[in-house]
Amino acid sequence: MREGIQVVRTGAVYRNMKDPAFMKYYYKFQTLEKVSGTDVYGSSPPDIFVGRFGYPNVYIGPLVPPTSGDTSIMATPEMWVGKSIEEIVQYRSNLIRGMYKTNIHKADNGRIEEMIAELAMADKYSGVEEVLKHKPSIGMHFDENSQPYGPSAGLKDMRIDNSTANPKVEKAYFDTDMSATRAIIELYEKGVPVSKIQKSLAGGILGYGKNRKFVPTRWSITAVDDSLGKHMLKSVKEYDSIDAIQVYPLIALDNRWLVIVLPGAWEYELVEAWYPNTTWNKDSPNIEIFSSYESFRGRSKYAEIGGCYYAARLASSELLDKLKRQGKVVILRETHSGYIMPVGVWNVREHVREALRGKPVELNGFEELFAFIRTRMDIPVNTWINNSTLLTLSIRQKRLA
Predict the structure, then answer these.
(1) CA-to-CA distance for 80 and 82, rounded, in angstroms?
(2) CA distance linking residue 155 with residue 109, whole number of Å
(3) Which residue of 109, 297, 344, 356 has the fewest C-beta atoms within 10 A of its own C-beta?
(4) Is the pTM of this model over 0.85?
(5) Helical packing angle, 307-323 and 217-236, nearest 10°
(6) Residue 359 covered by a domain
(7) For residue 33, is it within any domain?
(8) β-bridge mates for residue 99, sequence order
(9) Do 116 and 48 meet the contact criterion of CB atoms below 8 Å apart?
């Protein structure tokens, strides 16, 4: 591993790593030890953060580690499959957040605003200096949608060295007559990673020139997942159905995943079961189950589960578009106690993608499906059925047939 992002796993420190607050404090404190004053210089992966509090007047700023070299792994979720929560938190805790308050409509209209746009467009890690108002401080930041980050401080000024624009993103930036949605789709089709497209949208460099604005990071993540999923489903809904039940299992970060694809016209549901002492179930002694569903016609309201719903839908639609088939997709997720803290929606998108890269288990009928679920999940099959609109409807339709 590169210097500065090695994971410590010894003694009492390692035992305390099961406490999310301690883990975040420990790695942020390590980062602070590398900062002697109010100037921070290092290689931004590149990465930016746009806050949402106070909207439309929000804090924008670069994310910069106090180290130089290839830091791209710190801000590329596509590279984190197979990494532990501890490793991911250490990557992100290295990134010091500078906070500069501006209006969302001032994208590309101001010195710092222009540099944030430049960083959002950058192709690879870039030298960035943050001139901060005070020494960075440690704050606890938990958000299931966006990745964690390190210490933060008000941003007085900044400069960028050796920044090279991603040519595909740069082309979209100069096309001021193209909508943000069209730009998102074209960048994706040209092979630009989803995480890079999300930063581009957040940085206010996509869309019609007169409409461009900064988009809070949390919102930009879901907007890109949603836009790409909807676009892909237009084609998927025209394909023939798959012939048999397919199941794709995966275990990662103490989450158990089953991606189930049933024959028939497109429907989709994400069902999440959170065990006690996990992110969204801190106080209850019981397992809490949440679900969001859409029919062939889609849904008009924001999903109850939130951004994870759209991330998993994108990964599912990618599979079906690749197979040139459609089907009913229901994703079962068991989140066990080892998932001690949220690390971002990428966790859902990339791990569902990882599951779908594997060879599916093909099953004949619901009895075989339910038997398979029993071998992979702790929660009883009937509990899953009772909390799943799609499974319940599919069983009823099978009985009528």
Answers:
(1) 6
(2) 17
(3) 297
(4) yes
(5) 30
(6) yes
(7) yes
(8) 154
(9) yes
- Residue-wise burial string across 362-398, b where 16 or more C-beta atoms lie within 10 A, e elsewhere: ebeebeebbebbeebbebebeebbebbbbbebbeeee
pLDDT digits (tens, 9 = 90+) for 111-146: 999 999 999 999 999 999 999 999 988 764 555 666
3-state SS of 30-66?
HHHCCCCCCEEEEEECCCEEECCCCCCEEEEEEEECC
User: Does the residue 2 lie in any domain?
Assistant: no
Cβ(121)–Cβ(169) under 8 Å? yes
Which residues neighbour 360 within 8 Å (Cβ) at sequence distance 6 or greater? 246, 247, 248, 261
Beta carbons of 169 and 183 less than 8 angstroms apart: no
Range of the domain at 200: 168-231
Q: How far apart are CA 55 and CA 213, in angstroms?
A: 12
Look at the block and give the residue holding tokens 């930041």.
141
What does each C-alpha distance from 95 to 9, 66, 344 come to in angstroms? 21, 8, 15
Q: Which two tokens stand for residue 206?
A: 């996509």
Which domain-ending residue is among 176, 207, 231? 231
HEC string of 109-146 equals CCHHHHHHHHHHHECCCEEEEEEECCCCECCCCCCCCC
Instruction: Identify whether residues 85 and 215 lie together within a single domain.
Output: no
Tokens representing 262 are 């049933």
d(CA 311, CA 220): 12
| pLDDT tens, residue by residue, 165-194 | 999 999 999 999 999 999 999 999 999 999
